[in-house]
Amino acid sequence: AQSVTQPDIHITVSEGASLELRCNYSYGATPYLFWYVQSPGQGLQLLLKYFSGDTLVQGIKGFEAEFKRSQSSFNLRKPSVHWSDAAEYFCAVGGNEKLTFGTGTRLTIIP
Amino acid sequence: DADVTQTPRNRITKTGKRIMLECSQTKGHDRMYWYRQDPGLGLRLIYYSFDVKDINKGEISDGYSVSRQAQAKFSLSLESAIPNQTALYFCATSDSWGRQETQYFGPGTRLLVL
Question: Which of A30, A93, A96, B114 is the most buried (most CB within 10 A)?
Answer without folding.
Answer: A93
